[in-house]
Amino acid sequence: MTMASATTVHSVEEENASWVPMITIALGQMIMSFNVASLPVALGGMVNSFGVPPTTVATGIVAYSMLVAGFVMLGAKLTQRYGATHVFRVAVAVFGVAQTLMTFSPNAELMITAQSLSGAAGAVIVPSLVALIAENYKGRQQATAVGALGSARAAAGVLAFVIGGTLGTFIGWRPAFGILIAVSAVVFLLSFRLKPDEARPEVRIDFVGVILAAAAIILISFGFNNLNRWGWDWRGPMRHSTSLAYLPPRS
Fold first, then answer.
1. Which of 22, 35, 124, 201 is 20–30 Å from 8 (CA)?
2. Is 24 exposed, middle or buried (0-12, 13-18, 19+ CB in 10 A)?
3. Nearest Cα to 141, choosing from 11, 25, 8, 6?
4. Total-model pTM
């Protein structure tokens, strides 16, 4: 077989790759986006169910976002070390468990715990999605898959407002998160259609660096979330302290 013929056959194989793995990857993105977009929609219902202030319920939103932002680099390392397919499957299972806790949570504390667990799973799922696309698709299909991943995020946000708002109005806030239990189970089963990839045990994880980076990201996020209440001037009431008063020059 000539080099030109081999190239042609390879290109045809690339273009003929099944789109079932992409459905799995897109659903993995959608369950995360649906969850975080449903939280503001369900805020009023959770306030009434738990009998707590809105700020307490909003803590669940903040916990999810901070954990995703703080530990996404650790998630990328885990994806490299243990393989994107295996890590993705485990993370989706954890996400499904978290959504079960979310759906049946009797109080705000368990709801916040469920969202924290969802955030930890999301920090692993996010980097694994791109790695799975690179593993399952090449060439033009890979570019199409990356575009579809962005579309899945936007579509999940729209569906969360429509479905979550409708269910919240006529039934309650819990069924919106109950849907994610079923979809997570579907994604878990479909993940066995993904190409298995090799683990790289030589990849090392700097746990000290992970903790420092996560702490920095979380503290920065926490600061910006409270910027309206705290203001820009970190000195607060101390800005008028006499310790900063002008002292005349010595004679």
1. 22
2. buried
3. 11
4. 0.81
